[in-house]
Design a protein that fits this description.
Layout: H1 2-18, H2 29-38, H3 43-55, H4 60-79, H5 82-85, H6 89-112, H7 116-143, H8 153-169, H9 179-194, H10 197-215, H11 219-234, H12 238-256, H13 264-279, H14 297-300, H15 302-333, H16 336-345, H17 349-382, H18 384-388, H19 395-407, E1 411-420, E2 426-434, H20 442-453, E3 457-461, E4 472-478, E5 482-491, E6 501-507, E7 512-519, H21 524-543, H22 548-563, E8 571-577, E9 582-588, E10 593-597, E11 600-604, E12 620-625, E13 631-635, H23 637-641, H24 648-657, H25 664-678, E14 687-696
Antiparallel strand pairs: 1-2, 2-4, 3-4, 5-14, 6-7, 7-8, 8-9, 9-12, 10-11, 10-13, 13-14
Helix pairs in contact: 1-2, 1-3, 1-8, 2-3, 2-4, 2-7, 3-4, 4-6, 6-7, 7-8, 7-19, 8-10, 9-10, 9-11, 9-13, 10-11, 11-12, 12-13, 15-21, 15-22, 17-22, 19-20, 21-22
Length: 697
């Protein structure tokens, strides 16, 4: 019911706005159409309402002129990437005024034959462009809910501009008892009673100005302002107090100021205003506290700040993970004096000196690497202000359309921000709450956003959660072109309770998927702990925003410092950009990776050393473009070592190429089953198989 009333109200407003004549021009037809279109209103219905308004006040030629302008603008909007529509609010205003001028100028010149028509239409175009900016704010205010309608000055100006324009379009009639007089009086009482005093005074000023222009009597301006002031003073006494102040003030003005107000027609109009207000249901007059908002750049982007805060938290978590690993070194270092003392007591002075010298050289090398990495860390931190200062592409226009679209779903949007990341991909942050008892999930909101921005969107935070009655926040990003399906299978070395391999599959905020396998030296619990440290720390570093190279260097420094080069872990890393399909394969002592494409298998090999062996890490990397249907197979060295044939890679590649399934988990299970069968159930080493299928959405 609410939306039917709202729909009808918008179309009535369109009709009245189209009738508004200002200095012989009708410049508000186009701005209202643009504002309504950006608010997700029915463009056809608004078009008809505007044309009816034009027809009621202008000739057929004017209808054709404004109809052509609206059709041309609608064609431009429909053919333009919707995300670009929000690029700049002023571009929309410029396009609207420019099209109106370009169409109207030849028409006016042919009709009048005067050069002044060029200036005349130019002024109309400028007024049209300015009105677009104002009407957008007014439409946003109308759809924001009564509590947020006047939340900031721009909305305040916008809604009263719409009100004044519509009132100008109302028929004036003859005498004080006219439709216009009754409407203005009722709006004055309604707004004064329901909202705060400033809204009441503003309503009195606007209605008084409209009556002064339309009635040809400037005294109406003073009358309406004075009546609004009296109503503000008496509003605490409720409806009777407001009515009494209005009628008493009206009579007083008639006695002391203008006897015409006491004529029968005028009194009838005042009585009609009072009666309408008295008959208004109390539920429609419920007092509304005005929610003031700070619309500075800082507060506009509060959702972006929240996203940046989460990134910084991840950054901190990465260093906490590093501290956790390095703290183990402190415990080990406590045993060093005892070891040195034993050397000294045994009389092996040369061994002692060699040990001290070796340790000193290693510490110097580690210090050098750490200092270099600190500079790189500083570069990462410098990127944080970029995130913190991200600006909405167009907060007003975008928030208009989001507010309108989501209100139909029963969701009130309190903040909507759209940005572009470093890769020029759209991100949307919403703060909203549920208006009624409905189930609206993040996925459903993502589908609604698609119709607004013209791109497939996906909820990246709380996708399965439903909007609650309390304010909550959701984040969305462009849907990636590719998706991954993964399958994992592990097998322990015979006789061991734990597998020495660890793996991970994560998706980063930048739209990249990360697959990794780490094989710790040896087997069992010790190997499991070492490989787990590698996987956990690298996850934290990559999630915090570290680049692949710096993340690996920090990881290597930590592991090298911790183990003093005595133990190591391999690292097999695959980083896939789900938007482009470009994939990096990074290997540190890792086994071969296999890529299957249309029955052919490519092998990605490595000759580098594992993590923690050298103070300055060296790793092999290569880049490939992956496509729909490609299969990635990553294995630990235990898988290849378990193959009994001489050419182990060729055997495994043929096994992958001839697999009769594209299901990632089934393929992983099939390969492991073949390996276990070949070893007759007695595995020589820990074995891990990670299979990933790349598919277009």
């Amino acid at each position: 019911m609410r939306y039917k009333i709202e729909y009808l109200g918008i179309h009535i407003l369109a009709f009245l706005v189209a009738r508004c004549c200002l200095f012989g021009m009708y410049p508000f037809v186009v701005p209202f159409f643009m504002a309504a279109y950006l608010q997700e209103q029915s463009s056809f219905g608004i078009f008809i309402a505007l044309m009816l308004g034009v027809a009621s006040y202008m000739d057929g030629a004017a209808m054709i002129r404004y109809g052509l302008v609206l059709v041309f603008l609608l064609g431009m909007l429909k053919s333009t990437d919707r995300s670009k529509i929000f690029a700049n609010n002023y571009q929309i205003a410029l396009a609207s005024g420019g099209v109106l001028w370009a169409v109207s100028m030849p028409y006016q010149y042919l009709i009048t034959g005067k050069e002044i028509s060029v200036i005349y239409t130019l002024l109309e175009g400028i007024l049209c462009g300015c009105s677009v900016l104002i009407f957008q704010q007014g439409m946003t205010a109308l759809r924001s809910g009564t509590g947020r309608m006047f939340a900031d000055n721009k909305r305040f100006v916008g809604i009263f501009a719409l009100l004044a324009t519509a009132l100008f379009g109302c028929p004036a009639g003859k005498g004080a008892f006219s439709v216009l007089f009754v409407i203005c009086g009722y709006l004055l009482l309604y707004n004064t009673y329901r909202f705060d005093g400033s809204i009441g005074i503003a309503t009195g000023s606007i209605t008084g100005l409209v009556l002064a222009f339309r009635m040809g009597d400037v005294s109406y301006l003073a009358v309406m302002i004075l009546l609004a002031s009296l109503a503000v003073i008496m509003k605490e006494l409720g409806k009777p107090g407001v009515l009494l102040s209005y009628f008493a003030g009206y009579l007083l003005l008639g006695v002391l100021y203008d006897r015409a107000l006491l004529e029968a027609a005028s009194l009838t109009g005042a009585v009609a205003v009072s009666a309408l207000f008295l008959l208004t249901p109390s539920v429609w007059l419920k007092r509304v506290p005005i929610r003031k908002e700070d619309v500075t750049a800082l507060s506009q982007d509060i959702l972006i700040q929240e996203a940046s805060r989460k990134r910084i938290e991840k950054f901190g978590q990465a260093f906490v993970a590093m501290e956790k690993i390095l703290s183990e070194q402190e415990e080990q270092a406590q045993d060093l004096p005892n070891g040195l003392s034993n050397m000294y007591l045994s009389g092996d002075g040369i061994s002692l000196l060699n040990a001290v010298e070796s340790q000193s050289n290693r510490l110097a090398e580690l210090r050098h690497n750490f200092i270099r990495q600190l500079g790189q860390i500083g570069e990462v931190i410098q990127t944080f202000p970029v995130t913190l200062s991200e600006r909405s592409l167009q907060i007003e226009v975008f928030e208009c359309r989001v507010t309108a679209r989501f209100s139909r779903m029963g969701v009130n949007v309190t903040k909507a921000v759209m940005v572009k990341d470093a890769e020029q991909r759209l991100k949307v942050y919403l703060s909203c709450y549920l208006d009624k008892e409905k189930v609206v999930t993040g996925k459903k909101m993502a589908q609604a956003l698609c119709g607004i921005v013209g791109k497939e969107m996906v909820c990246v935070e709380r996708a399965e959660d439903a909007v609650s009655r309390r304010e909550s926040r959701f984040a969305f990003t462009e849907q990636a072109e590719y998706m991954l399906t993964t399958g994992i299978v592990r097998c322990n070395r015979s006789g061991e309770a734990l597998c020495g391999d660890n793996f991970s599959v994560i998706r980063l905020e930048n739209g990249k998927a990360v697959l990794m396998i780490s094989d710790g030296m040896g087997s069992g619990e010790t190997a499991n702990t070492k490989s787990g440290q590698v996987v956990e720390l690298l996850e934290q570093l990559l999630s915090a925003g570290f680049g692949r190279g710096l993340a690996i260097e920090l990881l290597n420094s930590c592991i090298s410092f911790l183990d003093n080069g005595r133990t190591s872990s391999t690292l097999d890393l695959t980083v896939l950009d789900l938007y482009t399909g470009m994939t990096d394969f990074v290997k540190l002592g890792a086994s071969t990776t296999f890529i299957r494409r249309k029955g052919q298998v490519e092998c990605i090999r490595s000759t580098s050393l594992p993590v923690g062996v050298l103070e300055q890490v060296e790793f092999d990397t290569c880049e490939r473009k992956l496509y729909h249907g490609d299969i990635i197979v990553m294995v630990s060295d235990g898988v290849l070592d378990s193959i009994l044939f001489e050419n182990k890679e060729t055997y495994l590649a043929d096994l992958i190429a001839n697999a009769d399934t594209n299901n990632a988990q089934k393929m992983a299970d099939m390969i492991m089953q073949e390996i276990v069968s070949m070893q007759r159930g007695q595995m020589r080493d820990d074995s891990t198989i990670l299979v990933a299928g790349v598919w277009e959405r």
